[in-house]
Amino acid sequence: MNGRSVALVTGASSGIGEQFARLLAEAGHAVVAVARNRQALERLALEVHDRHGIEVEVLAADLETPAGVAVVVQRIADGAPLDLVVNNAGFGWYGPFGEQPAASVEAMVAVNVTALALVSRAALASMLPRGRGGLLNVSSTAGFVPGPRGAVYHATKAFVTSLTESLHEEARPHGVRVTALCPGFTPTGFQRRAEVGTDGLPGFAVTDARMVAAAGLAAVERNQAICVPGVPNRVVRVAGQVMPRALIRRVSARVLERI
Ligand SMILES: NC(=O)c1ccc[n+]([C@@H]2O[C@H](COP(=O)([O-])OP(=O)(O)OC[C@H]3O[C@@H](n4cnc5c(N)ncnc54)[C@H](OP(=O)(O)O)[C@@H]3O)[C@@H](O)[C@H]2O)c1
To answer: Is 29 domain-assigned?
Structure first.
């Protein structure tokens, strides 16, 4: 890669992560794009290079596995220093907890929690001694409230928000920026993989993937600890803070019945 600033984005093969990669390339940053789907990453790299003359390095890795996480951790430690790491890869599953396949529980914790924590650790280990850089962790409004019929997903995102807030405070005195991005319902491949829809939700509650990614990049630029794109999603955050827990659980259950 040349002398441009370099950003690594996990989950860049579709949805919000693809938009991160596109926006970063449009702004002149070289991108290291991580996901399992190598073909999708290569298509993106070709298109971005043709349009913007920006190099996208394709790093195929399965973040469910320790070997896949090691590939990303090693790229962060050994390659050209990264200016931004975006931990975006993740997925959800909806239905009664007892019906969630054990493999799905394990994979979700591996990708949403373990991989994100280890990649965050590698990013900060490289950035803190340099006194510069940014880490953007994609959480969710799901992290603000419990999620009956989405229990594991909500718990993984509560982890992401909590971890990221702590890291924000640890990194702040060293000049390294750390932000949790908490989107709400955003039509992407997420719904296809989770086998849910957004049809039962009012249009105003649904956000656009490009807008979400742009909000996250602006937030990490100004070192905002938590970014919640869209007014309805900010209401969810405040509700999670002020409403009685029993009421939040019931409202959340009603909403998740509709998706
Ligand atoms: N869409 C929403 O409504 C919504 C709301 C709040 C938060 N989020 C969060 O936003 C993030 C991005 O999701 P999205 O909505 O953009 O969904 P998406 O379109 O399904 O994209 C998910 C990305 O994660 C990657 N990924 C999944 N499992 C992986 C694995 N084992 N190893 C490596 N990469 C993996 C996928 O790539 P491959 O399949 O190619 O590996 C894909 O690039 C997730 O963390 C999600 O929880 C989404």
So the answer is: yes
